[in-house]
Amino acid sequence: MNTLGLFASALLLGLAAPALLAKTPDCTGPERWPASMAFVHLKNARVTDNAKLDFSKIKVVRLASERIGKDLYRQLHLVRFVERTGNVIEVITANDASNKECSVSAVDVYVISRRLGGK
Questions:
Q1: Rounded to an integer, what distance in angstroms lies between the CA atom of residue 58 and that of residue 71?
Q2: I need a surface site. Which of 24, 67, 77, 108 has the fewest CB within 10 A?
Q3: How far apart are CA 7 and CA 52, in angstroms?
Q4: 31: left (phi over 0), alpha (psi -120 to 50) or beta
């Protein structure tokens, strides 16, 4: 590769490095904003309640985190609630977060009524 090619590669890497190294917020815990608000929505809709849930079995997986502004990210999470009866309730949440705060926006909650394929 010639000098111009090396310079162009270094320039592109330099421009892309901040985006590649940017730390996305970690809002994946069961006690964090997406899961907490998902539970509130489920409780308000009378889908489940405190007595029915086994809180030790809540599982949260971040599905996506897209930068939409300076230190602002749109995040999607899969939240799995397990009731004491074994019934599983899965939801997908969508909200905005920053590295300082997971609760930059309200949480949209989508209940998965049926899962097709996969595990």
A1: 28
A2: 67
A3: 61
A4: alpha
Q: Which two tokens stand for residue 54?
A: 């086994």
**H or E stretch including 6?**
helix 3-21
pLDDT of residue 23: 85
Selected residue with higher pLDDT from 119 and 36: 36
Distances (CA, A) of 103 to 14, 18, 77, 106, 111: 31, 24, 14, 7, 20
Which residue has tokens 């069961």?
30
Neighbours of 54 (CB within 10 A): 12
Cα gap 31→103, rounded to integer Å: 12
